[in-house]
Design a protein that fits this description.
Blueprint: E1 10-13, H1 17-29, E2 36-39, H2 48-51, H3 83-96, E3 103-104, E4 107-115, E5 120-127, E6 135-138, E7 142-145, E8 154-158, E9 160-163, E10 185-188, E11 202-206, H4 210-219, E12 226-230, E13 237-238, H5 247-255, H6 259-280, H7 282-299, H8 305-308, E14 320-321, H9 325-328, E15 334-337, E16 341-345, E17 348-351, E18 356-358, E19 361-364, E20 376-378, H10 384-390, E21 408-410, H11 423-443, E22 446-451, H12 453-468, H13 495-501, E23 510-514, H14 517-550, H15 557-567, H16 574-583
Parallel strand pairs: 1-2, 1-9, 2-3, 4-20, 9-21, 10-19, 11-12, 11-19, 12-15, 13-14
Antiparallel strand pairs: 4-5, 5-8, 6-7, 16-17, 17-18, 22-23
Helix pairs in contact: 1-11, 6-7
GO molecular function: flavin adenine dinucleotide binding; N,N-dimethylaniline monooxygenase activity; NADP binding
Family: Belongs to the FAD-binding monooxygenase family.
Keywords: FAD, Flavoprotein, Membrane, Oxidoreductase, Transmembrane, Transmembrane helix
Amino acid sequence: MAENQSQPRIVVIGAGVGGLSFAVNLRRKLPEFDNFVIYEKANDVGGTWRSNTYPGCSSDIPSHFFSLSTDLNPDWDYTHAKQPQFHGYWKSVARKYDLYPNLKFNTLVTSAVWNPSKSKYLITTRLVKDDISKMHVRGQGVLVQEEEDTPGEQQDEADILISALGILEVIRCPDIPGLDTFKGNIFHSGAWDHTVELKGKRVGVIGNGASATQFIPIISKDPSVKVTVICRTPNWFVPPIRAKYSTLRKWMFRNVPLFMRLHRLYYFLITDMFYMSVFANVWIRKLARRVCKAYILSTAPKKYHDKLIPSYTLGCKRVIFDTNYLNCLHRPNVDLNWNEIGSIIEDGIITKTGDKLPFEVLIFATGFISDDYPLHVKGTLETVKEFYDRNGGPTAYMGTTLPGFPNFYMLTGPNTGTGHTSVIFTEECQIDYMLQMIKPVLRGDLKTVEVTDKATARWNDKIQARLRRSVFVDCVSWYRRDRDGKVTSIFPGFATVFWWWFRRVNWRDYRVSARDPTQWERKQNQKEQWRGFKKVAVFFAVLSISIAILAKGAGKWDFVLDVCTKHLPSSSCPLYRRAKALWGF
């Protein structure tokens, strides 16, 4: 698509779920706008659903709730679909909205720096090779892609910068002594090396979280693959929930009006009820704990019972939906080892108890770095990383904007994860919120929008106060800064609360640079008065009906007006005075 240089320019970093969701909303709500580009370091769209190709990769959120509300899919094969179908869904969305012309693949954004004289971000990019099988260890134990000779850096400018990196961007690998001496195959589950043949080999899996519990039952089906799982902390498991959709059900999704949308609504309500049972109510949580404990004890081998029951509170870490993991522990070729790793040698692992565990393959299932920001984005004074460090960890107003970073917006930013509901839902709420601030810039009413320090501090204080009373501070987890500090990933509330808080921008919390400040102020005052008028109208309607019913006569309006006139504080309510003059009472 040809770029319209007369329009402000939007640069989106990342063509994963968040970046595509933003672009779809841009296409739908601002169809006349086309001056945007999405930079993606990989060779296709999909983000985590493109990169995570490990065996058994699937979602623990229902498929119908893990897709865009604007683009429901009647053809999901399972209630909780697998990676290939999710990746296919997002590719089809990109094609439907003609996003590929706006995408630049194999392009890594290396920096973005705010230029105050131009009120733009200077974007620096470079081309990268796309081969996730070429991974090696570098610094702090993080597996990174090998760099090859590529063309030099390129420059771009953005009036508006959207960070759509998500929280599954940078894989985490513990900095274990001797890691670089291992002579066998080594890779991370988030960058699965499909060229490695596991048949007949001794495989060490480091980590026992969500991804490990999905691929271990698959790779251990072959009895010649000896799998040893190096565990650190047990997890709470709930029974499997995946079911296959019948042909009839798919037909109904496609042909019966509202059926598919009601099905999605059902899952929305179920997941919020899950929050109530696990996170919000201590008595229900205790009951749920008993159910989970009974399930683990009835499914896993008896020899592991004392190790598999967590001592921490249910819900403190992400609850895992079992995908045959507990049952596969009965297999003779699967073993759990709870001894801490001391070092890695060329042919295996030495535990801190002195035991040697020989391996030909090491698979890290150690998650992703969620308590840092991987890009060099600099605002008026500092980088995002410096801002995070200064605030004790990832911090943002509404998880979306940062003070000192004009026209910069984050998807899946700090404290926007829920631990129970669909990230697609929360991102759509964020995008609606962002577009309320982006539209005035695109129309030319505003040059810049920037949240205030005071509003950011107030928001963070409110969120952290709620989190300190929550289950999320009861244990060490990836939800927290350095795993035991400030809770930086989770939103402390129902999905409904999330939507309500994000439904409208509070412009008092933002500094704006308007092209015509007087006109902008007048527009905002008019909008504020109209919202207040609607509130007064609703209040009057409810009050009138209530008093009329109490007066035992729905037509006694003289009585109603007399009560309203005598008892409402009209002196402190200019909108009431306006309504009084308008209606003549």
